[in-house]
């Protein structure tokens, strides 16, 4: 039987960059005992199960920026590493237009089991590094690396990329402006294709960024642009200079 991957893979933990990258939806892996949560290979290859291209994009950015990177080991359908535990979207019974049979009528302790198996190991690893960097006096900017679908429930999304933020307004807007200068007016969504919602839909920015007083954003790139490893790496090469420039320009916290 194929061995199951770890809940978190850490890359370049000692990287010198101010950026710490997280890829919370890096994998579509479902442990064998869960039988794909009742879904077939086609559905498990869709965006509902992971962020297509995000892991390759994140690895490319990590390499070019010399940034630490944390990659999740399991599908967002098992438990979502960028959702607050217990929120309705943490273990979804329906994702986009698809029911998830293996998440229906779960035993009372199943949520806690998935948290212990996948969610908490991932975020504990991130927290340890952030604590260490704080103790060492290192500037840190937290970035979640994601991809989004060109069309969601029949509605087209025109952006090539998006930057999502909450309290780090100055930093987030600087990143939007810098990326738009490269990609073109209207190509970069400012808090699009969705917004940070701490209570229901987001964990990385509110917990690892805002609660610690760190600049924190989510980077979203349209998945059809990074669907192959080669495309994702090309986008990493395209985006890395913008990230380096904004980090240098901000210098200190980019909050209101």
* Beta-strand residue percentage: 15-25%
CATH level-3 fold name:
Aminopeptidase
- The domain count comes to 1
Any idea what the shape is? globular
- The proportion of residues forming helix, as a percent range, comes to 25-40%
CATH class: Alpha Beta
Major sheet, described briefly? 7 strands, mixed
**Mean of residue pLDDT values:** 94
Rg, nearest Å: 17 Å
Strand order of the largest sheet: 1-3-2-6-11-9-10
In CATH, the homologous superfamily goes by the name Zn-dependent exopeptidases
CATH architecture classification name: 3-Layer(aba) Sandwich
Terminal CA distance: 52 Å
What does this structure look like?
- This protein is α/β, with parallel strands linked by helices and 256 residues long.
- It has one domain (8-250): 3-Layer(aba) Sandwich (Aminopeptidase), CATH 3.40.630.40.
- The protein has six helices and eleven strands.
- The chain has helices spanning 41-44, 54-65, 110-135, 169-183, 204-209, 229-250; strands at residues 8-11, 19-23, 69-72, 94-95, 98-99, 141-148, 151-152, 155-156, 161-165, 188-190, 215-222.
- The model has no long low-confidence stretch (mean pLDDT 94).
How would you briefly describe this protein structure?
With 256 residues, the chain is of the alpha/beta class.
Chain-wise SSE layout:
Layout: E1 8-11, E2 19-23, H1 41-44, H2 54-65, E3 69-72, E4 94-95, E5 98-99, H3 110-135, E6 141-148, E7 151-152, E8 155-156, E9 161-165, H4 169-183, E10 188-190, H5 204-209, E11 215-222, H6 229-250
Parallel strand pairs: 2-3, 2-6, 6-11, 9-10
Antiparallel strand pairs: 1-3, 4-5, 7-8, 9-11
Helix pairs in contact: 2-6, 4-6
């Amino acid at each position: 039987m194929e061995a199951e991957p770890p809940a978190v893979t850490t890359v370049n933990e000692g990287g010198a960059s101010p950026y710490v990258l997280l890829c919370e939806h890096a994998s579509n892996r479902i442990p064998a005992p869960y039988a794909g949560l009742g879904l077939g290979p086609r559905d498990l290859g869709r965006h509902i199960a992971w962020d297509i291209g995000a892991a390759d994009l994140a690895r490319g950015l990590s390499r070019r920026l010399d940034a630490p990177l944390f990659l999740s080991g399991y599908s967002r359908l098992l438990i979502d590493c960028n959702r607050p535990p217990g929120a309705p979207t943490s273990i979804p019974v329906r994702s986009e237009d698809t029911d998830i049979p293996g998440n229906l009528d779960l035993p009372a302790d199943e949520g806690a089991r998935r948290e212990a198996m996948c969610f908490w190991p991932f975020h504990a690893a991130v927290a340890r590094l952030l604590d260490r960097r704080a103790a060492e006096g290192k500037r840190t900017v937290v970035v979640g690396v994601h991809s989004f679908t060109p069309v969601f429930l029949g509605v087209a999304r025109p952006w090539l990329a998006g930057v999502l933020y909450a309290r780090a307004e100055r930093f987030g807007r600087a990143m939007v402006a810098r990326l738009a200068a490269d990609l073109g007016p209207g190509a970069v969504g400012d808090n699009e294709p969705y917004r940070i919602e701490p209570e229901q839909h987001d964990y990385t920015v509110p917990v690892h960024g805002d609660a610690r007083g760190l600049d924190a954003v989510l980077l979203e790139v349209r998945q059809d642009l990074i669907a192959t490893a080669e495309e994702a790496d090309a986008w990493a090469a395209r985006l890395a200079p913008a990230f380096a420039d904004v980090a240098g320009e901000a210098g200190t916290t980019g909050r209101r």
